[in-house]
UniProtKB/TrEMBL annotation:
<dbReference type="GO" id="GO:0030544">
    <property type="term" value="F:Hsp70 protein binding"/>
</dbReference>
<protein>
    <submittedName>
        <fullName>Parkin coregulated gene protein</fullName>
    </submittedName>
</protein>
<dbReference type="Pfam" id="PF10274">
    <property type="entry name" value="ParcG"/>
</dbReference>
<dbReference type="InterPro" id="IPR019399">
    <property type="entry name" value="Parkin_co-regulated_protein"/>
</dbReference>
<dbReference type="GO" id="GO:0043005">
    <property type="term" value="C:neuron projection"/>
</dbReference>
<dbReference type="GO" id="GO:0031982">
    <property type="term" value="C:vesicle"/>
</dbReference>
<dbReference type="GO" id="GO:0051879">
    <property type="term" value="F:Hsp90 protein binding"/>
</dbReference>
<dbReference type="GO" id="GO:0005829">
    <property type="term" value="C:cytosol"/>
</dbReference>
Amino acid sequence: MERQKPVQKESTGHKHQMQCTPFSVLSFSRKLDVGQPPSTGAFLEQKLERPTQFRKFYERGDFPLALEHDSRGSKIAWKVDLEKIDYHYYLPLFFEGLAETEHPYALFALNG
């Protein structure tokens, strides 16, 4: 095995800052900079490839609900009694709607 030598890092205002590869013996030294890991982008907003079934059903008007504006914000107004709703039909659609990020789809999916 070859010994790894630290590499001079470009000047960033720090005196004599050296950089080495991670998981090497040199990475335990105080005066050497290992550097930041590359970003995975896991927390960036991702666009949906195609519209969800929830969006299609809402735009078509299949959901028995409406958007009601109140002094405290927006909320959902159901057009039918909650006891008459077929949960086996609507619940999977609302779960799929949780992937939506645009208004009003996100509001309906979260509060529906």
